[in-house]
Design a protein that fits this description.
The protein is of the alpha+beta class. The protein is built from 6 helices and 5 strands. Helix 1 packs across helix 4, helix 2 packs across helix 4 and helix 3 runs antiparallel to helix 5. The N and C termini lie far apart (35 Å). Bound molecules: flavin mononucleotide (FMN).
C-alpha cells in the first residue's frame, strides 16, 4: 500500500476486536510517528503506550466518557513537551510548536496503522489533567491526543469532505 492508498483508506474506527497487536506492527506505528516533521527537529512530545484497564478507564474519563476507546488493545497518548520546545522557541514553542509536533506524529501514526492493517481514531484529550493522571506522566507534559489502536470491528460509512473549491484558495501566479 502506498501513502496515497493509506490516506484514502484511513477512517476513524470506534470499535475494535479483542485481539492483541503484534509487537512488530506497534513498532512500525511508533517508528512512523518518530519520523514525523517537528519544529527544529526537537520532537517536543512523548508517546505513552497504554495497555492496562485502569489507565484506559482514566483516559475514557479524560475524553468525556468515550467508553469505546477502552476496547482497543493499545491506546497511545501523545503528550506535548512545552519546556522542550520553549528552550529554543520561547512562548511560541510552548504554546504552539510542541502541539504541532505531537499532532504531526499522530498523523503519521494513523497512516502507518492503516499500512499494517490496524485502525485508529484521533480522540482529543479534553481533560488533560485527567489524562496525565491516567498515564502518570510528569507535570511537564501535556496530553493532547489519545489514539486507540487495534483491529477494526466495524466498517463505518465514509465521512463526506468539503470540495476543494470550498477549501482551497489558489492565489495563482
Ligand atoms: C482534533 C480532532 C479531535 C477529534 N476528537 C474526536 C473525539 O474526541 N472522538 C471521536 O470519536 N472522534 C474524534 N475525532 C475524529 C473525527 O471525528 C473524524 O476524524 C472526522 O469525523 C472525519 O472522519 P474520518 O476520520 O473517518 O475521516 C477527532 C479528530 C480530530 C482531528
Amino acid at each position: 500500500m502506498n501513502v496515497l492508498e493509506a490516506i484514502a483508506a484511513r477512517q476513524s474506527v470506534r470499535a475494535y476486536q479483542p485481539k492483541d497487536i503484534e509487537p512488530a506492527k506497534l513498532e512500525a506505528v511508533l517508528q512512523a510517528a518518530n519520523q514525523a516533521a517537528s519544529a527544529a527537529n526537537l520532537q517536543a512530545y512523548r508517546i505513552y503506550v497504554v495497555r492496562g484497564a485502569d489507565a484506559k478507564a482514566g483516559l475514557v474519563a479524560a475524553a468525556m466518557g468515550q467508553k469505546w476507546l477502552a476496547q482497543a488493545p493499545v491506546v497511545l497518548v501523545f503528550c506535548a513537551d512545552p519546556a522542550c520546545s520553549a528552550q529554543k522557541f520561547g512562548p511560541r514553542g510552548a504554546d504552539v510548536y510542541c502541539v504541532q509536533d505531537a499532532c504531526a506524529a499522530v498523523g503519521n501514526a494513523m497512516l502507518a496503522a492503516v499500512g499494517v492493517g490496524l485502525a485508529s481514531c484521533w480522540v482529543d484529550a479534553v481533560d488533560a489533567k485527567l489524562a496525565a493522571q491516567a498515564i502518570q506522566c510528569p507535570d511537564s507534559l501535556r496530553p493532547v491526543v489519545i489514539l486507540p489502536l487495534g483491529y477494526a470491528a466495524e466498517t463505518p460509512a465514509r465521512t463526506p469532505r468539503r470540495s476543494l473549491s470550498d477549501l482551497v484558495v489558489d492565489l495563482g501566479s
